[in-house]
Specification:
984 residues; Neuraminidase; 4-stranded antiparallel β-sheet; elongated; Pep3/Vps18/deep orange domain-containing protein; zinc-finger; CHCR; protein-macromolecule adaptor activity; coiled coil
């Protein structure tokens, strides 16, 4: 036991508690209320919660000396049942805490009630609900009382012992709500038997069922001064019981759910039963039996003589003895009995005058050691109160397992120890006996028990565990080489455990140290596994490449968490290992830059390949160009170079003819380097491709010259591509003609015929005289007779056609002269009421209309008349056109008007003091400017021409009028709404 103060201590609660009403004969307690029965028939109620007491005389009106035989109070301290015995008769009374007078239970007259069972779950302050009374003649009754009725609701007979009629000395009852009603659990004791009753329904129904079946009981014969039955209540539910019997203390746990599966619903709620023999309570040969008892959570308090011995319920050892400070007049009779307040958790003792209280302090403080001594480790741990106590329990478990050579189990418990044994001491235990497996188990368990913030220690222990795992794996390999083939072998099991360990502790294992360990032990697969866990994908991919497993390496590289740079790094090795899988992987990988893969693709392309083998690099480059629309020149150049090396140049020609940037704004038509392409095609002797490149580079002469070496028709096609430069096109065709004349095989006459036929293909671009110089000097003219005649006829037709065009031009010139003469005589009739289209004033009004740059005819203002009929004053037309036209045009008009004004003043000066020649020159300049001004303002009618059409798209309110338009807006807040009443 741990040293310290006593757990149980007895103190005097109240002296002379009977208040002169006789001596105490019986006592009961509940909810800090103590009810005493005295030898003179009085009930004295002490309420320590409110500090009050009351007295009720139950002997009033009864002859002779009356004494309280037994008093009982409910756990709440409100309801009380007491039996008065005297004068050869007995009566049972009920009283309530609020009553001043008792109520006699007349139906129980003549019966001595020894015990009462209260319905602790359902009882209330106002009603007792169901109460069971046990009498000294072996009968059970049910009673219920409501405080407001001032009398019992009913009294029912329930059961009677017939086989062995004995007095019921103790009763206890528990209830539980189940699906089909209320289940009752009733336990009753006589001096020699313990009876159990259970059932669903009402109490009457439960006990009626026992008329047809046997009552379950436990018999313990023997003499006992007073048989008692006690339930220990915890959280308003009975947990265990104790029966003070003649043979010993019969006790056990209560499980009020176990009997649900019982076929008969009979007593099955008692478990872990045990009997405490009285011989354990005395040192000598004489066995002294207790006269009373009380039950706490872990102990029995037994009244033996004037002492209370505290016995541990689990160890059955006496731990303490209590003595009470009795008065001199009470010592002779001693302590009468013990009682418990289940609701408040107090225990009381009493003699004939005094009430003693037994206080409890830390009752369970030593229970962990009690259970530990009994090797009930689970219960010991449950009762531990601090880590040091738990360490003691774990140490005992570990030492027991270690002693029995259960080293793995011992390691499990050693790992739970934190204080009483050091880490080094425990590890040395296993190292000294060479138990590597148990040491590994200890380390693994220790990691789980270490605080997560102690990362340094966790890392060290996990690294040690890693080495022990590797050592175990190697030892299993040395023992049996076939273990690797058996999936259920110990070797495979350890491998699985080791991988699980690596996965669980990857965050704390030092990466470099762990990888060195794995490498030093030759565990390549585990090294790869750990590298995957630590996301060291470079090591993983390198391993798979060395093993020739390109597909696995590519699967790793395709993970989203893997850096794209590893794709470029391992591309050369992967494409050489498995070109098909590599290219397929590239095609499915997003954000891959083909330019960075060019070294790998060139390495693959330099290797020899079978004739019919699919070129994987070409396939990938075509995918980039056609599907990904790649614009990188390096990619296009590489694809072009691979096409150029193929025997069939059809793919190369298709590639060159495809316009990859077609449709893009200001984009190129191709992305490869044409100079590089030309050099490459010349090197590989791909002449058709060279012709196409020359043509694309606008080097048409070189294209035709090279095409003539390949195919004359190709040269003709190239010559026809030049459309905008007639001289160049003719030059190209002459090159072709010269080649046809000089290099065609056949007789001279045949070559001449071919040359003549060639002229027809040029569609008149070449004549016979153009190709004659290409023929030898000794060629006969007769061979060209037909072609020359045809050419002369063409020239004759051209001359005739030219004559006709000249005649048509002469007639056209004559018509223009006539139109000009007629135009000089054209006039318009202006009505005298005709108005200006701008100012709406009459055109022909006489007044001062002198305007700048214009001289009035008579005294009328100058004006314009258009063929459509609209008329305008010159000044009004200028102002209207200037306002409606563009800013630049308006500036030009104003500038011309200003020049006319200035020149008009100069003309007047010249006419006064200059020669006639100077005046004529000045007037001609004025006419020229006036003509320009007329063209600017009067080229078309402003109401019928383009000027009016453009005004349709202009806004109604100009920018300069925004301020005026803003002033037109209506301010709703300034409008006051007024209502007017109309008189009817």
């Amino acid at each position: 036991m741990d040293s310290g103060s006593q757990i149980f201590k007895g103190d005097t609660l109240e002296r002379y508690a009977a208040k002169g009403r006789g001596v105490i004969t019986s006592m009961a307690a509940g909810n800090e209320v103590i009810v005493l029965g005295t030898s003179k028939g009085w009930i004295i109620r002490h309420d320590y919660m409110v500090g009050d007491s009351s007295e009720i005389d139950l002997s009033a009106g009864r002859p002779g000396e009356q004494a309280i035989h037994r008093v009982s109070v409910d756990p709440g301290g409100c309801h009380c049942i007491a039996t008065v015995v005297g004068g050869g008769s007995s009566d049972t009374f009920y009283t309530h805490a609020k009553w001043n007078k008792p109520r006699i239970l007349s139906k129980l007259r003549g019966l001595v009630v020894n015990s009462v069972a209260w319905n602790k779950q359902l009882i209330t302050e106002a009603s007792t609900k169901e109460v069971i009374l046990g009498t000294d003649n072996g009968q059970l009754y049910e009673i219920a009382v409501d405080e407001k009725d001032k009398k019992e609701k009913y009294i029912k007979f329930l059961f009677e012992l017939t086989e062995l009629p004995e007095a019921f000395m103790g009763l206890q009852m528990e209830t539980a709500i189940v699906e089909n009603g209320t289940r009752y659990y009733v336990m009753a004791v006589t001096p020699t038997r313990l009876y159990s009753f259970t059932g669903i329904g009402s109490l009457e129904t439960v006990f009626t069922n026992y008329l047809e079946r046997a009552v379950h009981f436990m018999e313990l014969p023997g003499d006992i001064p007073n048989s008692e039955l006690h339930f220990f209540i915890k959280q308003r539910r009975a947990v265990h019981f104790a029966w003070l019997s003649g043979a010993g203390i019969y006790h056990g746990g209560l499980n009020f759910g176990a009997q649900r599966s019982s076929p008969n619903g009979d007593e099955n709620f008692v478990e872990n039963k045990a009997l405490l023999d009285y011989s354990k309570l005395s040192d000598g040969a004489d066995v002294i039996k207790p006269t009373s008892m009380a039950v706490s959570e872990f102990h029995f308090l037994l009244l033996i003589g004037n002492k209370v011995k505290v016995v541990n319920r689990i160890s059955e050892q006496i731990i303490e003895e209590l003595q009470f400070d009795q008065t001199s007049d009470s010592i002779g009779r001693g302590i009468i009995g013990l009682c418990s307040d289940a609701f408040a958790g107090y225990i009381y003792a009493y003699d004939q005058n005094t009430i003693f209280q037994v206080s409890v302090q830390e009752e369970g403080r030593d229970m962990w050691r009690v259970y530990l001594n009994m090797k009930d480790y689970a219960a010991a741990l449950e009762n531990c109160r601090d880590p040091f106590q738990r360490d003691q329990v774990h140490l005992a478990q570990a030492e027991a397992a270690f002693f029995s050579k259960e080293f793995d189990r011992a390691a499990f418990f050693y790992a739970k120890i934190n204080y009483v044994l050091s880490f080094e001491e425990i590890t040395l235990k296993f190292i000294s006996i060479n138990e590597q497996d148990a040491l590994r188990t200890f380390l693994l368990q220790k990691i789980d028990n270490i605080a997560k913030d102690d990362k340094c220690q966790i890392t060290m222990i996990s690294t040690w565990a890693t080495e022990l795992y590797l050592d175990k794996i190697n030892r299993l390999l040395l023992e049996d080489d076939t273990t690797t083939k058996d999936g259920d072998s110990e070797y495979q099991s350890v491998i699985r455990d080791f991988r699980a360990f690596l996965s669980d502790w990857k965050a704390v294992l030092d990466e470099a140290t762990t990888m060195k360990l794995l490498e030093s032990y030759g565990r390549v697969e585990e090294l790869v596994y750990f590298a995957i866990l630590k996301e060291q994908y470079e090591i993983v991919v390198h391993h798979y490449i060395q093993q020739g497993e390109a597909k696995k390496a590519l699967e790793v590289l395709q993970k989203p968490s893997v850096s794209i740079e590893l794709q470029y790094k391992f591309a050369p090795d992967l494409i050489m290992l498995d070109a098909y899988e590599t290219v397929e992987s590239w095609m499915t990988t997003k954000n891959l830059n083909p330019r960075k893969l060019i070294p790998a693709m060139m390495r693959y392309s330099n290797e020899p390949h079978a004739k019919n083998e699919t070129h994987e690099v070409i396939k990938y480059l075509e995918f980039c160009v056609q599907h990904l629309h790649n614009e990188d020149s390096g990619v296009h150049n590489l694809l072009l170079s691979l096409y150029a090396k193929q025997e069939d140049d059809s793919s190369l020609l298709r590639f060159l003819q495809c316009k990859f940037g077609k449709g893009r704004v200001n984009g190129p038509e191709f992305f490869y380097d044409p100079k590089y392409a030309l050099r490459l095609c010349l090197k590989e002797k791909r002449m058709r491709a060279c012709v196409h490149i020359y043509s694309m580079m606008s080097m048409h002469e070189e294209a035709v010259a090279l095409a003539l070496q390949v195919d004359t028709e190709l040269a003709k096609a190239e010559a026809d591509k030049v459309e905008d430069d007639e001289d160049l096109r003719k030059k190209l065709w002459l090159m072709i003609a010269k080649h046809v004349v000089e290099h065609e095989k056949g007789t001279k006459r045949e070559n001449i015929r071919k040359a003549i036929a060639f002229l027809k293909e040029t569609d008149g671009l070449l004549k016979i005289e153009d190709i004659l110089p290409f023929f030898p000097d000794f060629a006969l003219i007769d061979d060209f007779k037909e072609a020359i005649c045809s050419s002369l006829e063409d020239y004759n037709k051209q001359i005739e056609q030219l004559k006709e065009e000249m005649n048509d031009a002469t007639h056209g010139a004559d018509n223009i002269r006539n139109d000009i003469s007629a135009l000089a005589q054209r006039y318009a009739v202006v009505d005298r009421d005709e108005e200006c289209g701008v100012c709406r004033r009459k055109i022909l009004n006489i007044g001062d209309y002198r305007t700048r740059g214009y001289m009035s005819v008579g005294q009328m203002a100058p004006f314009y008349v258009f063929p459509c009929g609209h008329s305008f004053h010159a000044q009004c037309l200028i102002a209207h056109v200037t306002r409606c036209t563009t800013h630049a045009q308006a500036e030009h008009i104003l500038d011309l008007q200003k020049q006319l004004t200035l020149m008009g003043d100069d003309t007047r000066l010249l006419s006064n003091g200059s020669t006639e020649e100077d005046t004529v020159t000045s007037l001609s300049s004025v006419d020229k400017i006036r003509s320009e001004l007329d063209d600017a303002i009067a080229s078309e009618c402003p109401f019928c021409g383009d000027l009016m059409i453009r005004e349709i798209s202009l806004p109604f309110i100009e920018a300069s009028e925004d301020q005026q338009a803003t002033s037109w807006e209506i301010n709703h807040q300034s409008i006051s709404h007024r209502s007017f009443s109309l008189a009817i």
